[in-house]
């Protein structure tokens, strides 16, 4: 479905942009059909950047992304967005407050399916709204401010179902919702997976990742530390960073300042593991680390394992 190879996104930072900051650094992974993959990491680890790269919202510095075997840079946006869609953290920002909810669905018809008969389209809209557990009669005709965050988020998922969406980037989609609504939305994703959808589930919350996903990627400072079957990564964490995360859940929500970013980019000696300065096992061997297979469907980037 989606294959990411040696993906890198570097930004120029520092005075006169002379220094480079690697938001995503040589990342490779694969997401198969009918699979939910969690991308878990602290704030600033590069999760959203990977999501944006897959959604073609920004361009990679190097590396490539294939969708169904085709390099996405060669696919026209209109063609690509029929199949690959994103839903983000703040549902309110995705709606124009002066238009009724219906507008979001009408725009999909105008943009992607202008030849579809209006009545047929409206039937389809009602069907997808029901599929995400809402009553179309209660929802359609309302303005965004008349609905809850959870309802708006469900409608954004419904919107993706109007298209032939095969792959969804779900970036912190439940972090603004209350606890009971959260589980409902996760269950919708799991249901949709059963019907054929694949999802990159971006979160800084380990428990949400565990609940939702088949595979887990642990990201630290733009690089993958551990990757594999969710059960294996959670029940047998091997990378010192994953172990630390599971034990303590450190500053997952911290927002970095520009100065901290510059300090971050200088923190590890070139060639050394990104986790070097925090790792209890670090020593001079921790150089040129590659992801290596430790068991079936379980990979770790640590020379000590
Ligand atoms: N345009 C930019 N210029 C410079 N640095 C950037 C730019 N966009 C993102 N970054 C930096 O890249 C890093 C990765 O950002 P990203 O938003 O992908 O992190 P994240 O893991 O999604 O964090 P969060 O959980 O807070 O959303 C951050 O340190 C961020 O400050």
TrEMBL record:
Highest taxon of the lineage: Bacteria
Any one of the GO BP annotations: peptide transport
Pfam families: ABC_tran, oligo_HPY
Sequence ranges assigned to domain ABC transporter in this UniProt record: 2-246
One of the record's GO molecular function terms: ATP hydrolysis activity
Keyword entries, A-Z: ATP-binding, Nucleotide-binding, Transport
Annotated transmembrane regions: none
This protein's name: Oligopeptide ABC transporter, ATP-binding protein
